[in-house]
Automatic annotation (TrEMBL):
The keyword Nucleotide-binding applies. One of its GO terms (molecular function) is ATP binding. Pfam families: ABC_tran, oligo_HPY. It is found in: Cell inner membrane. The gene is dppD. This is Peptide ABC transporter ATP-binding protein.
């Protein structure tokens, strides 16, 4: 049984000129312990599809799907209360831009302890001890002192580690990482990716890596889903996709990698494929 199974998901938003379809009839499957990369440029519907699955889009969003199953449970017919119990416990998400995702009014330790209180019923010393263990496990230096730090007192990489600590606090079955390295410098990016992969292996989670970076895909994924303008264009095992991409857009993404440069300039994603959808 698949950990996650979504069929024919469509998401639309009302605009001044009519309905805008951000996600167009896509399917998503994730197995236990599998790493699925959802790749595509900005605006391709990667994040929106996962936010729709988690029920985190505004009420004005129009969401339809034929099937939306998680760990044998029907997310389409589930009550809002049951969904809230799952989100943050069995399903967690690491959002883009960690500094803006954390509440600036509360210490980092308090924000992790809040997750532990909400989903595991921990409080007081027990919550503090567990938060300290989490900070240590994600490699935050001087973890006891950082529990009392506010987000603005930490670096971007440290804030991302706090977000990861919050996301894994309840040992979720599925972790969704939404562009987890975008705002970080190259050295810190590698550290964060290594940390995520180590945690995924250690805890046996399913992992969805949302990214526009084919280099991240190569380092992390078992399987890759390529999206463009809300549509899924291609899906394959990572080695198969890199060695034999089938869709012109996928070939354009790979050709735009610096290591694939030929001549005196880099190709852009748009070179030579638009109009072939």
């Amino acid at each position: 049984m698949a950990l996650l199974k979504i069929r024919n998901l469509t998401v639309e938003f009302e605009t001044a000129t009519g309905l805008f379809r951000a996600v167009d009839s896509i399917d998503v499957d994730v197995e236990q312990r599998e790493v699925l990369a959802i790749v595509g440029e900005s605006g391709s519907g990667k994040s929106v599809s996962m936010l729709a699955f988690m029920g985190l889009l505004p009420p004005t969003a129009r969401i339809t799907a034929d099937e939306m199953m998680f760990d044998g449970r029907d997310m389409l017919t589930m009550s809002a209360r049951d969904r809230r119990a799952i989100i943050g416990h069995d399903i967690s998400m690491i959002f883009q831009e960690p500094i803006s995702s954390l509440n600036p009014s509360f210490t980092c330790g308090y924000q992790v302890e809040e997750v532990l209180a909400r989903h595991l019923g921990l409080s007081g010393k027990a919550a503090r001890t567990r938060a300290l263990e989490l900070f240590d496990s994600v490699g935050i230096p001087e973890p006891e002192r950082r529990l009392n730090s506010y987000p603005h007192q930490l670096s971007g990489g440290q804030c991302q580690r706090v977000m990861i600590a919050m996301a894994i606090a309840c040992k979720p079955k599925l972790l969704i990482a939404d562009e987890p390295t975008t705002a970080l410098d190259v050295t810190i990016q590698k550290q964060i990716l290594d940390l995520l992969m180590a945690l995924q292996e250690e805890q046996g989670m399913g992992l969805i890596m949302i990214t526009h970076d084919m280099g991240v895909v190569a380092e992390t994924a078992d399987r890759v889903s390529v999206q463009y303008q809300g549509k899924k264009l291609e899906e394959a095992d990572v080695l198969q996709l890199f060695e034999n991409p089938q869709h012109p857009y996928t070939r354009a993404l790979l050709a735009a990698l610096p290591e694939n440069a030929t001549g005196d300039r880099l190709l852009t994603v748009a070179d030579g494929w638009e109009g072939q959808l």
